[in-house]
Specification:
The structure is a homodimer. In chain A, the strands form 4 sheets. Chain A has a 5-stranded mixed beta sheet with strand order 6-5-4-7-11, with helices on both faces. Chain A has helices at about 5-30, 35-40, 45-55, 125-145, 180-190, 200-215, 270-275, 280-285, 290-305, 310-330, 340-360, 365-370, 380-395, 425-430; strands at about 30-35, 60-65, 80-85, 90-95, 100-105, 110-120, 150-160, 160-165, 170, 175-180, 195-200, 220-230, 230-235, 240, 335-340, 370-375. In chain A, a hairpin with a 3-residue loop joins strand 5 (about 100-105) and strand 6 (about 110-120). By secondary structure, chain A is α/β, with parallel strands linked by helices. At the A-B interface, helix 1, helix 2, helix 10 and helix 12 of A face helix 1, helix 2, helix 10 and helix 12 of B.
């Protein structure tokens, strides 16, 4: 049979798509047997075997026998499991926050190799000074590793409005940065690593991580709202992340909820963000709206003491959260909505007012079915989201990772190659 | 090779999915050659041939030589095209509006076999009386056909809030109907036809038709707003219709845009619908808010004469449309937004105010790229949407259509079987 050129192209696209699906499945779900992969990807066993061989040849996955027997042993030989190879390509994840810089090396499967943090006020630094600090921090972190990781890209979480294509920061109010070409500054400051750089908005990245690995796991219709200065939203529609025609979707903070309300950073008036952002909360409580995380911590302490002004300010934020969430419930009919960042912290004090408004304003059917919860990854969500951003090109097309020359698929009863790094965040470090 | 039962199930699911994709592609795009089908569905030619054979055996498609040679003739024998078979299963589409009933027989591929209309005021009828009228109208319409169509289902457009599962109408304010089990009433009144009944909200159905065949055709990120009493929205995200966790998504009319505003039919306050619905427009212009389409026609005439009150009322609706659309643009980043129904009619008078608000409130990047347009199917959108609703089960799973016993795939230079019905709406009728 003569196959057309169009047919060849279609075949290679199907192959690429299947490699991407398999790697993404392992990235999200951990160890899977060949049968489980075949069932969940709806592929036959020979295709599955061929895809595993290619991913292994690129150093992305490996195959081994299970450490423990399956709960209900079945006759025949034990089934090996396929896993992300922890020595495969990893992301350098950077978190630039108002009061600290964090860095981590995070591989596929959200495997955190190492993570470090330095406390300093970025608001009093120029972008160049901040990146000098970040570069030193990363240098000392990489020095702690037994051997250099295969860094594939740098993913950066920035507290501001970011242009996706090149990491240009329009405005990072909490840092006092405006019109900073952050992506290209990082590219040149970290040119020694020679890898691409991707910059994202902190709240968006956290919401993405929550969807993939936290409170949104397993839901096909999910919204994560992340308060961190402004509002970030991760919206999942039918199992897929909402990105829009050019990647700008999800700016829920700029739905108008009060047309004649206060001016927003974006130039409009009465955006939802002007009602539920950190600044609005601090202003209502009589604190400096630009007081940042220290002022929020102070407010939370006051609420814990039962101070009425603090409680009233949080209830008012809760009321406005409920107003906006009701609109999102009516538009998206999600099965779950998660509150993260600032909203998880104020949840105990804001929840009652939030639920009251949600109950009044959501349509009966979608309102009755939506589950309201809090984000589950805590502060790690930002670094994990930054790593997702950096690793996304590999997940979309695993064939961009060169063949490693070592195509052996390793099978043994014990872990043949103990990962030379692969610990997750130590509890003490995770809590810092 | 021994194939597992799970493997068999997966294979049959893949088959069903491929049948659905092929039929949907032909339903939307019309005639396609085998090569075009193979390319767009990313399937090999032998799979394509086998799928065509099955769809033909079920009387859903047929294959014939093109009437005209292709623009650039290629060497070798001419390529036959696959088409929806016009004698295949069809929907009885019913439109219950305030001032008329319309009915049509519409097949796959939106092929309108026949369509009729009767003017009467449904607001002064009970649901039972309305259905008696509809039944008479349908009876006379079916009598006009050469031979009875293969009716597969009834799809009904109703001007109110409808429960998808069973067609229960919570509220149809323009008809004065509340808590009407419309689906089951139609099922029993049309029991002579013995087919399933699906009821949808008129604006939602129109928006769906616009997405598939009108102003949204070919866009992957599209929003159609349809004013018809309330607001209906058809939202397409990444090429797929937004339905949410249980099919309730798209209620954009119930986003809060003015928390302390007027009470909405839904029980909440300051919903977008209270600002841009027909009632709000009529009230602002000093007309009876429940005046319906006659009052709207009167308002449009006044605007055409340049009457300032009418123009101001429409501009105010435009302003509120812009406020809500800006929020949707920020949340969804659509490439196109279409205005249909009432919004298409007031567009000439409301557009300037709408664009002014949209420009102020949309974020720069998604705002700059969105194209604002009007719906293109006109009044037919409701019937076409009702037919989509009725035919959806066949499109999802073509194997529910029984084998017709005639599996011959017909190929001839001329149209071998001229469709015994298959004309589209005559222009005069379409304009009525």
């Amino acid at each position: 049979m003569v196959r057309s050129r169009a047919g060849d192209i279609a075949q290679s696209e199907i192959r690429r798509n299947n490699l991407s699906r398999m790697l993404s499945e392992l990235h999200l779900r951990g160890s899977l047997t060949r049968s489980e992969l075949a069932a969940s990807l709806r592929l036959n066993r020979s295709t599955v075997a061929s895809l595993i061989a290619e991913l292994a040849a690129r150093g992305l996955v490996w195959e081994r026998l299970r450490d423990k027997p399956a709960p209900q042993p079945t006759p025949g030989r034990p089934s090996p499991v396929v896993e992300i190879c922890r020595e495969g390509p990893a992301a350098l994840a950077l978190e630039l926050s108002t009061d600290w810089i964090r860095a981590a090396v995070i591989g596929l499967g959200a495997c955190v190799a190492v993570s470090v943090r330095k406390d300093l006020s970025l608001a009093s630094s120029t972008p160049e000074q901040a990146l000098d600090e970040a570069h030193d921090l990363v240098g000392s972190m990489l020095g702690r590793l037994d051997h250099g990781p295969r860094l594939a890209a740098i993913g950066v979480s920035a507290p501001g409005a970011v242009r996706a294509e090149d990491g240009y920061v329009y405005n990072a109010p909490n840092l006092g940065w405006r019109d900073v070409p952050l992506g290209s500054l990082i590219r040149s400051r970290f040119s020694d690593l020679g890898v691409p750089v991707f910059v994202g908005n902190d709240a968006d990245l956290a919401a993405c991580a929550e969807h993939m690995r936290g409170s949104g796991r397993g839901t096909a219709d999910f919204i994560c709202l992340w308060g961190e200065g402004g509002i970030g939203a991760g919206i999942v529609v039918g199992g897929r992340s909402l990105s829009g025609a050019a990647g700008y979707a999800g700016e829920v903070g700029h739905m108008t909820v009060d047309p004649d309300g206060a001016q927003c950073h974006c130039g409009s008036h009465g955006c939802w963000e002007t009602k539920v952002g950190e600044e609005a909360l601090l202003r209502r409580s009589g604190r400096d709206p630009n007081g940042g995380s220290a002022a929020v911590a102070d407010l939370l302490e006051a609420a814990e003491r039962g101070e009425s002004g603090a409680l009233a300010a949080m209830a008012e934020s809760g009321r406005w959260l409920g107003i906006g969430i009701a609109g999102l419930v009516n538009v998206f009919n999600p099965s779950r909505v998660a509150l993260g960042g600032l909203y998880a912290r104020i949840n105990p004090y804001a929840r009652q007012a939030l639920e009251h408004e949600l109950g009044r304003r959501a349509m009966p059917a979608p309102g009755a079915m939506v589950e309201l919860t809090t984000a589950s990854l805590g502060a790690d969500a930002l670094l994990l989201g930054a790593a997702e951003l950096a690793l996304a090109p590999i997940l979309r097309n695993p064939a961009i990772v060169p063949l490693s020359g070592d195509a052996t698929v390793i099978i043994s009863r014990r872990r043949a190659r103990p990962p030379s790094y692969g610990w997750t965040l130590a509890p003490a470090e995770a809590r810092r």
